[in-house]
Amino acid sequence: MTATPGMSTMPFSLYGGDVIELAVRLIGARLLVDGVGGMIVETEAYRRDDPASHTFRGPNRTNASMFGPAGHAYVYRSHGLHWCVNVVGDACGAVLIRALEPEFGIDIMSARRGGAANLCGGPGRLTQALGITGSHDGLRLNEPPLQLLCHQSGNVGVVVGPRIGITKAVDQPWRFGLQGSAHWSRPFR
Asked: How many CB atoms within 10 Å of residue 140?
């Protein structure tokens, strides 16, 4: 898929600033891998000084992409089971993409997910549906095979809640979702 009216490649200037703002800014954007993907409907923010962040204890072999430039993908394996994709922001922060609304290449996503009904509702389902693996770690989000498109139609309604699936800093209200979406990984409280 190429950029369509109302959508353009997300400029690197939009990755700057606070990672919390980036997490909100990504709601309504489109993430595509080789033209397959959809609208981002759920994110979680992780700052450098956040004990739940992979950067909290400093750089290592697996989190090196988070210490690199903004506008790249940070892909890691969660609990040794499934891949997760993040958008790297400034100051070693990142935004976990938790859920997408499938829009492009739904048949491909369905085949990758074995015909499952919930194609992209959760970080592991999303990466499986889009075919994201460790080979995507460190890639720029504005170059093939990745494409991050921002919407230009103004603000979207966003709901806020605490992050899920973590054991540290669980009270931080850094989970964001597209208001009214039926594609979140879990409902917001």
From this structure: 14
Q: What pLDDT, in 10s, does the model give residues 137-170?
A: 999 999 999 999 987 666 789 999 998 888 888 8
Cβ(52)–Cβ(163) under 8 Å? yes
pLDDT value of position 2:
46
Q: Do 102 and 119 meet the contact criterion of CB atoms below 8 Å apart?
A: yes
**H helical segments located in the chain:** 19-25, 106-112, 123-130
Please tell me the distance from the alpha carbon of residue 97 to that of residue 176, in angstroms, as a whole number: 10
Within a domain: residue 147? yes
Category of 143 on φ-ψ map: left (φ > 0), alpha (ψ -120 to 50) or beta: beta
Beta strands in 19-127 (DSSP E): 30-33, 36-46, 73-78, 82-88, 94-104
Nearest residue to 126 (alpha-carbon basis) of 136, 115, 134, 118: 118
Instruction: For tokens 């994709």, name the residue.
Output: 85
Other CB atoms within 10 Å distance of the CB of residue 116? 14
Domain that holds residue 24: 7-178
**Six-digit token pair at 150?**
């921002």
Q: Answer whether residue 189 is part of any domain.
A: no
β-pair type (94-104, 36-46): antiparallel
Find where tokens 């209200």 sit: 173
The enclosing domain of 47 has a CATH number of: 3.10.300.10
The pTM is what?
0.91
